[in-house]
């Protein structure tokens, strides 16, 4: 009996290389199709209007920063406290404070809470806050106008803090 020895020829190499590139090209076209069909690419309807809004928002943020109004957040167990003061350190005249707690990854635990006023520049709420990292966005208003809008990252530590 004679053993058949088939060798790897140049045609085999051409077929292997062609198959490899065919797979790469097919994957690229598939990904390009899904990318173009799932998102329009439209970020804003009108770039001029968006630029004007950006300038308006930037000016408002500069005015807020110049006002010197600052807030201090503390979270202990279910007690959320927020003290807000002006640049002299006296309690700021604020009507409403809303906090948005957001996890850096995922949104299944996110929540919003409107704090109740307990004194000049002092606000509190009773809400369970799980331990770990949070991004807290605070919006403070006086007469319906936003006086301060800030976002900070906090770590509430372990449960039962």
SSE layout and pairings?
Elements: H1 10-38, H2 47-67, E1 70-76, E2 79-85, E3 96-102, E4 111-119, E5 122-126, E6 133-142, E7 145-155
Antiparallel strand pairs: 1-2, 2-5, 3-4, 3-6, 4-5, 6-7
Note down, in words, how this protein is organized.
This is Nitrogen fixation protein FixH. It comes from Rhizobium laguerreae. This protein has 161 residues and is an alpha+beta fold. The protein folds into two domains: 9-40; 68-155, Immunoglobulin-like (Sandwich). Helices cover 31% and strands 35% of the residues. The protein has two helices and seven strands. The chain has a seven-stranded antiparallel β-sheet. A hairpin with an 8-residue loop joins strand 3 (96-102) and strand 4. The protein starts with 9 loop residues before the first helix and ends in a 6-residue tail after the last strand. The relative contact order is 0.13.
Can I get a quick summary?
By secondary structure, the chain is of the alpha+beta class. It folds into 2 domains: 9-40; 68-155, Immunoglobulin-like (Sandwich), CATH 2.60.40. It is built from 2 helices and 7 strands, in the order H-H-E-E-E-E-E-E-E.
